[in-house]
Design goal:
By secondary structure, the chain is of the alpha+beta class. The chain contains 20 helices and 23 strands. The radius of gyration is 27 Å and the shape is elongated.
Length: about 600
């Protein structure tokens, strides 16, 4: 693997020769190269000022170079050339990513790239955006906005790599959520999101086995190197925890906890605390309860300072009979009601019940027959914006670090259908201006309350927008979330490709037919290529559910505009259906 170092003035002539050979690779004749000689020349006295870096192999042979020129806030990628024998081997990518990293550290806000026409495809693939500016010399101009990891991402894992533990089933099981099946099959699928618990993992630790082709594809898409995979550790174990499965393998436990890297779980549990050597108090997670969270929201609002927030009324039904009476009374009065279990995942155990539904099924008692066992909450339904384009479901993500400091990650728009979470979008300005201040302020207040109560880790606050332009908080989740995955990927892509990425999670892309692993990888390769042609990035996020009797796939798409993001999502949905239909025809013909 090539290594980078600063160029030396005494190798200027050798570097000039490399640049000339690299330019000639594209078929230019001697006359043209002679005319370009002044531009291509590397002078010893300018090596330091032009911030030239070289890539060299293990034997010290120089394979390529790049220069980072100008002064903040606007700079230029002056040179990026690779020895012809090394073109296509990742040297150019290594030099380009390093130039962006250095530019971000130096405070450059924009980086201009005047590319040879033959190299334009490379810069597009790297994420640089075509610029309208005219170079006047036949070159193709690109721009990129260098970006370092945001402050929250550096605080989350210390700015470095982390070990990701996909203990979704273990986290859910501690609350006795009666809406979950005993085997926690869905939780094992969602554990695949452990790939995205931080911007750059060192290792993934998963309960179920995952396709090796998926793991390689995700690593390529996000340019991760050297990531270790430990999967199939709690296969078929029902609610048995992943943390205990790791502890039962002392060598593995030592490897994932003894490397000096942060160990990041989906959520905190007592078995995880034993594995990580952390203190454990079950009460720190008390606000996972929707009733406890509602009470906390009320206390925060009683203190004032949040005029854009309105808390819906909530009542606890001590018995099923009490719940029937409450629901029936509200239906007779013409009120829509939200029924909730105290705990639930992704909308499980939550249902919006209209008066019409109560009448259609034969009364409130019939409605509750299909509801999970356990205590129920009866909550006022918040009517949303009148127009179809207004945002309805929003969320705030943040975390409390080990010292109790609250870090704001940001706001996201969620897609929710029939009280079920379907995905989220993050990116610049996705939360409308009228909602942003209220959302961020209240989310931070919740974080302070959680910190004061002893909680440490990631959390979110979910909201619905009402018809008056206010936000109604509905619950808080003391764990990583679907939107958190999008924030992590956006941070990674911004650092790799330049700032400004929108990322959308599509939680459940129905496939219609099961695909063998090889065909699933072919589908992902095709979707990645078609998205790239739009200027978007495609990442398969949850592959294992594609092998279920009712198969589905979780995916991520990213782009630098919402229009391209929408187009990429539509392409992925149509492409998935088309590929599955084609496979089915091929299989049975």
């Amino acid at each position: 693997m090539a290594k980078l170092r600063a160029a030396r003035p005494d190798e200027a002539d050798a570097l000039t020769g490399l640049v000339t050979r690299s330019k000639a690779y594209w078929g230019y004749d001697a006359e043209f190269l002679a005319a370009c000689a002044g531009e291509l020349r590397v002078r010893g006295a300018e090596v330091a000022a032009r911030r030239i870096v070289v890539a060299e192999d293990a034997a010290g042979a120089v394979l390529g170079l790049a220069s980072l020129e100008g002064r903040s806030p606007r700079g230029e990628l002056g040179l990026l050339f690779v020895e012809p024998a090394s073109i296509g081997r990742g040297v150019g990518r290594l030099l380009y990513r390093d130039a962006l990293r250095r530019a971000a550290e130096l405070g450059f806000r924009r980086l201009l790239i005047d590319s040879d026409p033959h190299a334009a495809g490379f810069y597009r693939a790297m994420g640089a955006a075509p610029s309208a500016g005219d170079t006047g010399n036949g070159l193709v101009r690109f721009e990129v906005a260098p970006a370092a990891l945001p402050g929250w991402a550096r605080a989350w894992t210390g700015g470095g790599r982390a070990v990701h533990l996909g203990n979704v089933g273990e986290f859910n099981a501690q609350f006795g959520d009666s809406s979950l099946d005993r085997e926690q099959r869905a939780a094992h699928h969602y554990a695949c999101l452990a790939a995205f618990y931080s911007p750059e993992p060192a290792a993934l630790v998963l309960p179920g086995a995952v396709p090796a082709s998926w793991f390689r594809r995700v690593c390529r898409a996000l340019e991760w190197e050297g990531v270790e995979l430990y999967d199939g550790l709690a296969e078929g174990g029902g609610t048995a925890g992943l943390s205990d499965a790791v502890r039962a393998r002392p060598a593995l436990a030592g490897r994932v906890t003894g490397a000096g890297l942060p160990l990041v779980p989906w959520g905190r549990t007592e078995p995880f605390a034993r594995l990580a050597g952390l203190p454990w108090r079950a009460r720190d997670l008390r606000y996972e309860s929707k009733s406890a969270a509602h009470a906390m929201f009320g206390r925060i609002l009683a203190g004032g300072g949040h005029p854009g927030i309105a808390l819906p009324a909530q009542w606890r039904a001590g018995t099923r009979r009490a719940a029937v009476r409450m629901l029936a009374g509200r239906a007779r009065a013409g009120h829509t009601t939200v029924l909730k279990s105290r705990h639930g995942v992704g909308g499980s155990g939550t249902s919006v019940v209209t008066p019409e539904r109560v009448r259609e099924v034969g009364g409130a008692r019939a409605v509750l027959r299909g509801f999970p066992r356990g205590p129920l909450l009866v909550e006022e339904y918040v009517a949303g914006p009148a127009g179809p384009d207004g945002p309805r479901d929003l969320t705030y993500d943040g975390f409390v670090d080990g010292s109790g400091r609250v870090h704001e990650v940001g706001g996201a728009l969620m897609e929710v259908a029939e009280a079920g979470y379907r995905g989220a979008t993050v990116g610049p300005g996705v939360v409308p201006g009228w909602a942003e201040k209220s959302l961020l302020s209240f989310g931070e207040a919740v974080g302070r309350e959680l910190a004061a109560g002893g909680y440490r880790g990631w959390f979110d606050v979910d909201f619905v927008a009402d018809a008056a332009g206010r936000l109604a908080p509905t619950e808080t989740n003391l764990r990583l979330t679907g939107p958190s995955v999008a924030f992590m990927v956006a941070a990674r892509l911004d650092a790799l490709r330049g700032a400004g990425h929108f990322v959308r999670t599509v939680d459940r892309l129905e496939l219609g037919a099961r695909l063998p692993e090889a065909q699933l990888d072919e589908l992902c390769a095709e979707l990645a290529g078609r998205c790239a042609a739009l200027g978007a990035v495609f990442v398969p996020a949850i592959p294992t559910a594609a092998f279920e009797p009712e198969p589905w796939l979780g995916v991520l798409v990213a782009a630098r505009s919402v229009a391209v993001l929408d187009a990429a999502e539509a392409l992925v949905r149509a492409g998935a259906l088309g590929a599955v239909a084609g496979f089915a025809r091929e299989r049975w013909s």
